[in-house]
């Protein structure tokens, strides 16, 4: 497996991540690591707001905050089917939201997504990587599943801190 050395470095990454107690510090670390390991050009981390029924990005490379209904796009499809996905031809997929590319000027060539589950097995987010030179494959999907599980505790904790912070304001 080509990711053998990556998993060894994951322990160091995890220790560093636990020192980041804010989205502003932790999410860029998650995105950078995922992009480096897989060789993707961009990473977006979507948070699933169950109360509002929307997905939003506290982190999205190269674009302002994205907010979409939680049942739209390939990320919404990932939530509906509760499975990761690879799409190496997104413009042919009816779930793909090409409007985001139109607004940003970015051209999405391929996508891999993985749902992030909390401790109650609810989907609290989705990690999405875009544009790997040779396209995404099954090995990338396996890593994304593992990585989503690995960062799920951090994202769940961040969501709790955000809710508590908003209650105190």
Brief account:
This protein is an alpha+beta fold and 169 residues long.
Give the CA-based shape: globular
Q: What is the terminal separation in angstroms?
A: 48 Å
Top-tier CATH class = Alpha Beta
Assembly context of the chains: single chain
**How large a portion of the residues is in β-strands, by DSSP E?**
15-25%
How many β-strands, per DSSP? Answer: 6
Biggest sheet layout: 6 strands, antiparallel
The CATH H-level homologous superfamily: GAF domain
The total tally of domains equals 1
Helix segment tally: 5
Alpha-beta classification? alpha+beta
Strand order of the largest sheet: 3-2-1-6-5-4
The rounded Rg comes to: 15 Å
Please provide the ordered H/E string of secondary-structure elements.
HHEEEHEHEEH
- The CATH architecture can be given as 2-Layer Sandwich
Mean pLDDT: 85
What low-confidence regions span 5 or more consecutive residues with pLDDT below 50?
Answer: none
- The CATH topology comes to Beta-Lactamase
What is the helix fraction of residues, given as a range?
40-55%
Written account of the structure:
It is a single chain. The protein has 169 residues and is α+β, with helices and mostly antiparallel strands. The chain has one domain: 2-Layer Sandwich (Beta-Lactamase). Helices cover 46% and strands 24% of the residues. The chain has 5 helices and 6 strands, in the order ααβββαβαββα. It has helices at 4-18, 23-38, 73-81, 98-104, 138-167; strands at 40-49, 54-60, 67-69, 85-87, 111-117, 123-132. The protein has a 6-stranded antiparallel beta sheet with strand order 3-2-1-6-5-4, with helices on both faces. The mean pLDDT is 85.
